[in-house]
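Appendix C reproduces, verbatim, an entry submitted by the partner laboratory led by Prof. M.T., so that reviewers can inspect both the input and the predicted structure.
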Amino acid sequence: MTANADDPAVLRAEIARLNADLVAAERRIAELEARASIDPLTDVLNRRGFERELARALAYLARYGGSAALVYIDLDSFKAVNDRHGHAAGDDLLREVGRALAANVRAADAVGRLGGDEFAGLLWNLSEAQAHAKARVLEGVVEAVGIGGGAHRIAVGASAGAVALAPAMTPAALIEAADKAMYARKAERRGR
């Protein structure tokens, strides 16, 4: 005996199957969208995801007020790690830096890898002075990260610049301003 397509029980079963397929497809789309914003090496936001968070923060501040800051972090002497120890060691170090930065900001804050050896943090409810102080803390966090042990420990330094978010600015302009602040900090650190 074959099932009749006009049978209400058959139609209900087909609707239930289609609904289950739709839920699974929506879940897969959400998973892919989330992965599209995550740096696969470091498991922090990638540039696209970070810029999206920055745009949301700017919109929030424009509408509701408040304060937030952008910290731009560049690893010092990272190229030497890749040249001397290989790209696998460099990747391991980047993973550890990403973990350490994410572990040293609040849950409401965001950390992203903008590319290469450059990271950024979006920090909520900080004045610019507090953001500069947190940038120094994050430099220390990066400097404490290392892979390997003993005489074979591989580590790098970091230079971090900070700027307060201004709702009138674009994400690109804020990143550029924070990048300039980071280069000023890098020059200051070299002058020590």
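The chain is about 55% helix and 15% strand. Additional entries are available on request from the coordinating office.
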